[in-house]
Specification:
The structure holds 3 protein chains of 3 kinds. By secondary structure, chain A is mainly α. Chain A is built from 9 helices and no strands. Classes of the chains: A mainly alpha, B alpha/beta, C mainly alpha.
Chain lengths: ~220, ~325, ~240
Amino acid sequence: MDTFIRSFAFMQERFPLLLEKTGQHVWMCAVVIAVSVLLSVPAGLVLGHLHRGEFLTTSISNIGRALPSLAVIAIGLGFIGLNFTNIAVALLITAVPPILSQTYLAIDQVDPDTVRAARGMGLTPAQVLLRVELPLALPVLFSGVRIAVIYVISAATLATVAGGGGLGDIVLGQATYGIEGVVAAALWVAALALVSDGLIWGLQRLLAPKGLRVSGVGRGAG
Amino acid sequence: MSQDPSTAPVGAQEIVFDRVVKAYPGAAAPAVDDLSLTVPAGEICVLLGPSGSGKTTALMMVNRLAEPTGGDIRIGGRSVRDMDPIELRRSIGYVIQSAGLFPHQTIADNVATVPRVLGWAKKRTRERVAELLDLVGLPVNEFGGRYPAQLSGGQRQRVGIARALAADPPVMLMDEPFGALDPITREHVQDEFLALHDRIRKTVVFVSHDIDEAVKMGDRIAVLREGGRLAQYDEPRTLLKEPADAFVARFVGADRGLKRLSLLRLSDLEPAAAGEDSAGLPELPAEATLRAALSLMVAQGTDRVRVRGADDTRLGTVSLDAVRKAGAA
Amino acid sequence: MSDQPVLPDYGDPSPCVADNASFCTDWFTAHWSTLFWPALAEHVELTVLAVGFGFVLALAAAVLAHFQGWFTAPASFVASFLYTVPPLALFQLLVPVTGFSVLTVEIALVAYSLYLLFTTVLTGLREVPQDAVRAATGMGLTRRQILFRVELPLAVPSLVSALRITTVMTIGTVAIAAYVIDAGLGSLILKALQSPFNTLFIGSGALAVALALTADGLLLLAGRLLTPWARSRRNA
């Protein structure tokens, strides 16, 4: 228990340091998530719209999930040495599969009758995708982003291994910061993950169409 | 809007299926085979058949959700092949079994879909939505802001019809639109649609697998057999009286005589003068069907019913014999 | 990186080792039985222990939640909380309590595995066709008999897919556990970090990846063998 009390003292004393490392951590994760979303969402949208590539997306998702981040970083270290590319690749391998596979699933699962009605009314393929399929897919799509964010925040603590900075510098830096520093930074990372998860959940509630949340309410009224 | 023919309100148009074939690659037999029929402007044509008879495929070729592999379909004399599929679909109302409403949009937004993609002014769209929702008995003030999940099955289907009518299309395609409803609701929505059709007079192609629905809704019925071949195309009365072959006879059912009676009303017959002995007879309104009259006579063990006109006037009596003759005519 | 022999304590360096080339097969095979195999075995052991415990706990919780609806919300809240906390942080937070021990590692691994196991198993139980349950009730089976003879067997596909995901994730997490205990393939990676030695990096990294992919494939196969009925329906 003593360690935990001292870790709070550490937080007070080294607040600027924690803040700086948190900044690095968040920046690193934000860039990776942004790049992953830009890479995976359009691909998932198009594949899901065409109902093609189920094997491809599930394979990428299965393999991506099976690749241990530390092992990927280690293999990268062996081939290309200590640099940030390593970390970036490892984090992208972590983030792309859940976003890609959930985006694909989300679009693929939209009720085919709804899509047929939209096409039958003369909506263009782009209108069908953007006005009907995408809004209906948002909740599932967001669940993919949420998983990716949790994984990336977690994996980013390993960035320190390849000199990538972030809170991992302290979590894995017992020699420099002592056990109280390690515990303080671990608490900080945990809080960061929980807060980010909550924020994305909130964003999802905000963006997800209201009509999807009212099922069963006031049925058959009037 | 007048320069764009697909958006201008147009009267009903004739639909012609001309030797239409649809063969899916890899399938042994075509889904629709050499289908030729003409749906006169303003009429309801029911495509009737068992599953696998290609009726939905035939329907989807009209708005080019499926492309014919042979033959041609013409609407108002124009081949659908010569029209841009998107433009074509915007000029055709389309209603499907589950209504296909967009669950993330309000009822009003759902109905406004086609006017919006056609670029109508906001005010015009709003007025049209209100008019249509009124037409199907779901006033916009009460229902416009609700989501599909907040409506009953029958209400959702009525929204589907309103949405299909939004751009005042000359042609409507309905794919088992009432198939998912319970019998009582279905009957009700069918009646409502027939009343609506009397006012709007669109050309309607209606897919069904239910002979009773077909007899009730169709001005003409096209019976399709497996493999998408036309077995018979006739008015309901003729179809029931003279089935073209054993397949049609089996499909319309052994009770087709009774079904014919349900197409006729007491008011279609000349009632005999009611004598003094008519006092104890069962009574029916003039708009009752002959089938109901027959049923009542059998149940009550009589051979006549009394016919009641509007304002409770007595029009006379109809006998079992008269019913039988009418059914055989 | 360096022209000097990098790991003198691992014996006389071959030219490949001396150059620290990307991967020296001779060094890898020479140290297979003393270095790689033991680490691989430890890795498997830690994984099996964690997934086994996690599975039993999650299964019990899911069955309880299936019978007692109120238990679902608190259980999934706790599980999702533990799942959201990065495992490395969880390891370090446990160290002051349970020390640099296998116990610390296993507690964190089990905690991390609960969420996916619990939610997937519970979903599997809930998606059992109600008709099957009603028919079983009608035939006079007790609630317990229905659970063991109808619901759990029908939920096997979800059980297996939950095990699959959890196992590969745990294999990845065990690699990180090397920061707490000197065991598993992760500890070889950390050793290689101290004086960058490429063969050790790639050898242990590739072994971890191979282990995860093999486990994934084996569990997929096991799932197919366990659920012949799902297969025949697929083929029909």
